[in-house]
Amino acid sequence: MTGEWLIVDIMYRFDGKIYEQIIKLVRKELSLSPEERKKENKPKKKKDTTRGKSSNPDPGTEPSPDQATTGTGAAEGQAEDNVPAGGVGTVEGGEMSFAVPAPPSGNLVTSPSKYKLKEGSFLKRERKPTQIVLHYSAGWQTLDKCAGCTAFVSGTRGLTYHFIISVDGHIENLVDPKYIAAHAGDPPNANSIGISLECLGTTFSPEGLDGANRSLDKFRKSTNTYRKTHYGKNQDYVYLVDSDGRKKSYKGFAIGQEVSVEQIAALRGLLKSLAKRFPTIPSWNGLNSENFDILFPPKGTTYKSGVPGLYTHCSITTQKSDILPTPRLVNFLKTLRY
């Protein structure tokens, strides 16, 4: 038995219909004349469906549906893959960006999700903010458009940030930043805008689970916190760093949860938007060793009510560890300009 017929025999054992189809094709091929065989094997032209639909003279260079929609090139199309599902993010100039919501239109209702706030959780008194304070939510990085964090902060604690940024870059505006929110105590509340990134930050014990003498690998293997992914997008734990990106503990903690790329992109756009809306907020021209110590005081506090600028909750009180100098956040602050 030749090789070809051995293959046919095997195929017949599995499916007789395949065998019958092969026989029909062979008989048809043998019955054709040389001229008919050439005509039969000649490739058919594909119908040009682009004609009459585009002014592009060369259909071969017609943009893909994604490019046609966004009007962007290949570089932006590739960056679009990094944007989370749900259409929250867009790409501008090759950088991921997220829409800053309009200020809440109603009293005690957030924007854009219209969550209800607890009565008395902010003071509807207009002012011209001169400071921005960055926080962590000290909770899971969720995919619920900040619903859980808003409910806990306002409903349970009776407090509010002006903005919360979720792990997928969603920005929820709880309080119009021209009003006073209860996010950092007095006197910071009177002059500042509070922005919270959904993030656990540190874990349970500075010298226990994630102390300076504990390796990151051992921490990951030994704690359930690292393995929990309630919402499927919790970021990894990383070593904390100094202003130059070198590993260094902060407030006794060596390890903290990282923020996401989407949160960084959303925060960048939000800060630029606030600086444009409120000229009373001073410019930021990148991180250096001096302003690093203002954001992450090595001891004591650095906040001054009469000094405009960017602060963290660590700047205001020694009892807080938010935010933390993680590699992604430190690199962001180095490149940030507004």
Give the tags.
two-stranded antiparallel sheet; alpha/beta; 5-stranded mixed beta sheet; 338 residues; Lysozyme-like; single chain
Can you tell me about this structure?
With about 350 residues, the chain is α/β, with parallel strands linked by helices. It has a domain at about 130-338: Lysozyme-like (3-Layer(aba) Sandwich), CATH 3.40.80. The chain has helices at about 5-15, 15-30, 35-40, 65-70, 75-80, 145-155, 190, 215-220, 225, 260-275, 290-295, 315, 325-335; strands at about 90, 95-100, 120-125, 130-135, 165, 170-175, 180, 190-195, 235-240, 255, 310. β1 and β2 (about 95-100) form a beta hairpin. The radius of gyration is 30 Å and the shape is globular. The chain starts with a helix and ends with a helix.
Q: Which segments are poorly predicted (pLDDT under 50) over 5 or more consecutive residues? A: 1-19, 46-89, 204-213
The counted number of beta strands is: 11
Largest sheet: 5 strands, mixed
| Spatial arrangement of strands, main beta sheet | 6-5-8-4-11
- Helix/strand structural class: alpha/beta
The CATH class of the domain at 130-338, by name, is Alpha Beta
Number of helices: 13
Mean pLDDT: 75
Label the overall shape. globular
Strand content: 5-15%
CATH homologous superfamily assignment of the domain at 130-338: Peptidoglycan recognition protein-like
Tell me the distance between the termini.
79 Å
Helical amount among residues, as a percent range?
A: 25-40%
What's the order of the H and E elements? HHHHHEEEEHEEEHEHHEEHHEHH
What is the CATH fold-level name of the domain at 130-338? Lysozyme-like
- At CATH level 2, the architecture of the domain at 130-338 is 3-Layer(aba) Sandwich
Round the Cα radius of gyration to an integer and report it: 30 Å
List the quaternary state of the chains. single chain
